[in-house]
Design brief:
This protein has one domain: Rossmann fold (3-Layer(aba) Sandwich). Strand 1, helix 1 and strand 2 form a beta-alpha-beta unit. The chain contains 5 helices and 5 strands, in the order βαβαβαβαβα. The protein is of the alpha/beta class.
Length: 147
Amino acid sequence: MEVEPIEILLAEDNEDDIVIIQEALGQSRVINLIQITRDGEETLAYLRRQGPYRNARQPGLILLDINMPKKNGLETLQEIKADPALRHLPVVMLTVSEREEDIAGSYARGACSFVRKPVDFERLLVVVRNFELYWTLVAKIPSPHQA
């Protein structure tokens, strides 16, 4: 079964989490972590190909943390979904938050999933590997050429 590679934009400001997620996804043959952004403003600049990102490739999937500086994940998500050129992109909230208002707010703003990020290293590896299986074998995402 041939699986199309998925390119991911990881919007995350915690360096430890970045390393763990990169390590877990780095073992994949079908997921390519193409870029890391560390705050909401940088994420939007990347997606809109502004400034240093003018030659950036559009990701097939965005992993977005809620607790980021400058512009938090919920604000960033709202801007992504309000932009006709970006709203088709699937956004998964990947966060340590368990707050009901963050969960409800994420879905209300257009997130396709809310995944709680465990603080334990081994559990985070399991979550990332299960995430990979779902997004490569079960879910279908728009091709960057079709968007």
